[in-house]
Design brief:
With 315 residues, the protein is mainly alpha-helical. It is built from 15 helices and no strands. α2 (48-76) crosses α14 and α3 packs across α14 (279-299). It is flat, with a radius of gyration of 29 Å. The N and C termini lie far apart (79 Å).
Length: 315
């Protein structure tokens, strides 16, 4: 007897992906909008007039916010002449002579380097010290932990101007005037940064650290392999703020940097205003000082949003 041939089913043919047409996409958007409206109580749903008013209010707020930056850029590109409003705000004629004057000056590139060193090194130092202190205050047990933490946090309630004079006297006695370390070191102890780090790390599950200790990790390995990767959003958020604070800092660099070579951009631009420098040159220096801040925010925007969201969720 011969065995009957076994019939095998042919594999089903792959279906080509269906591309939704315009009507289907419009219907999907309408359904999604209706489903979102179902989650909002009927009495709290905005009316058409309310939506128009909200859009108009946001537009006005955006114009008011962006207008100073627009005026700064346009006036910096104007020729050296008397400023007349509103005629000077028309974006023509434009020239880059003010930027050539600023970048060809001997002091401005030096001020830019000083500001970069002050901001970048301070960001690295503040984030490192704050993350270490936050980890210790959140996950370590030692005598006097709460007393030490709240005593350190009480520095937030002390005005900065009260401690500036004794800090300057101490730095001057140590020979830190007109030096980078005298400019940077007093700003590394940031109570707000330590508080944010401590609150964020406190929300991490203890099981992660117990499992790492069972695997033979020491405290430095736990901090480097577990804590730091989980801190990326809050580190980026805090880094943007710290960079902004130090880049725009004026009073401490003015006090500690008494020579022209140790000035930062904020102090240098303020000194230009006292030397009867044309307005377009001063504003071009302001634009140059603004660009790194904007670039830092654009680079850390994604982590910045994640950090703000995570901080809000953890309460």
């Amino acid at each position: 007897m011969t065995a009957a041939p076994v019939e095998t089913e042919a594999p089903p043919a792959e279906k080509a992906p269906v591309v939704p047409d315009r009507a289907s996409r419009r219907t999907a958007r309408r359904l999604r909008k209706l489903s979102e409206q179902d989650t909002v109580p009927y009495g709290m749903r905005p009316t058409r007039a309310g939506r128009i008013g909200r859009a108009a209010l946001l537009t006005v707020a955006a114009i008011v916010t962006v207008f100073p930056f627009y005026a700064m850029v346009v006036l910096s590109l104007k020729p050296s002449a008397a400023v007349e409003f509103p005629g000077s705000l028309v974006p023509w004629p434009l020239t880059g002579e003010a930027y050539d004057t600023v970048m060809s000056a001997q002091d401005v590139p030096r001020w830019l380097v000083n500001t970069l060193v002050y901001s970048v090194v301070s960001v690295v130092g503040v984030l490192l010290l704050a993350s270490l202190a936050g980890y210790a205050f959140a996950k370590k047990r030692f005598p006097g932990r709460e007393t030490m933490f709240w005593s350190f946090l009480s520095m937030v309630m002390v005005p900065y101007h009260v401690t500036m004079i004794p800090t300057f006297a101490m730095i001057a006695k140590l020979g830190g005037v007109d030096t980078y370390w005298g400019l940077i070191v007093p700003t590394l102890a940031n109570a707000q940064a330590v508080f944010l780090m401590r609150q964020f790390i406190q929300g991490l599950p203890d099981e992660l650290f117990e499992a790492a200790r069972l695997d033979g990790c020491n405290e430095w390995q736990i901090f480097y392999r577990i804590v730091l990767p989980l801190l990326k959003p809050i580190l980026a958020t805090l880094g943007v703020f710290v960079f902004l604070w130090h880049w725009n800092d004026f009073l401490w660099p003015l006090v500690i940097g008494q020579s022209t070579d140790m000035r930062t951009l904020t102090v240098g631009i303020a000194s230009l205003q006292q030397q009867n420098v044309p307005l377009n040159v001063v504003l071009s220096g302001s634009v140059i000082a603004f660009v790194p801040i904007f670039a830092a925010y654009m680079v850390g925007q994604r982590y910045f949003t994640e950090g703000v969201t995570a901080s809000g969720i953890k309460g």
